[in-house]
């Protein structure tokens, strides 16, 4: 009996694995077509100054409209883009689109100096041979205002090859590109990297914001991160602000800015432009 069960368990496991692999392959095939068939679109989530309530920039977030399955979450398809290598083309497309929007908004006088457009970069894209040059080309092609482009990286980018990461970032920093450390607090060793990396902003992960109004240890952590960032001359952005209460707490901690459903989720380009005109 034990043997039977054991064998069944293995077969079940194998089938499950096979299902996952084939689902991944199907998605990979769909993603191959997605770029040429224009199924990707960028949405923009406003970043706001906590003190003044003014829009201080945006984060570009990738959306995939699947012809049959509807909108698929980036959490589900970005890992597939990464493993398949498609992230190189899609990631470059994201940079170009964001730069194009920036160019349009600044030519209309809607993008004020000091505002920043954040673009998420995944590890494989960051390490790509042409990454630095591709970003510089996009800045020039679209005549992006100096200082307007911000690149969001996670610790995953840095962990293996710190010196290479520093070099990549420094080269782009010389072209007025700024860097934000995304999902701050969720990795292992962020604090030791802070000293070495040319990062200008910390983004506090939304998992620390969610329970801010009733979890004392989250409050201590968030206040400590903000205090540390301020002492290190870094900007702090809180992610995932959904309530007035969370915003008020962040205000008392002197957090610089925030993003979240409380003000607005990521919205299509036209809607974001309307928001800039308000
Ligand atoms: P992220 O960079 O940390 O982006 C923030 C995520 O939080 C976004 O999810 C955003 O829609 C969501 N969010 C914003 N405000 C709130 C809120 O108040 N409450 C809650 N619950 N969520 C909020 P999204 O758009 O699903 O993106 C998920 C992740 O996918 C991003 O996390 C980022 O890591 C990745 N991603 C998105 N676009 C790109 C891209 O163009 N390139 C790369 N490499 N990664 C991307
Ligand atoms: Mg981000
Ligand atoms: Mg984040
Ligand atoms: Mg993230």
TrEMBL record:
Residues 24-278 form the EAL domain. It comes from the Bacteria. This is Bifunctional diguanylate cyclase/phosphodiesterase. It comes from Gilvimarinus japonicus. Coiled coil: none annotated.
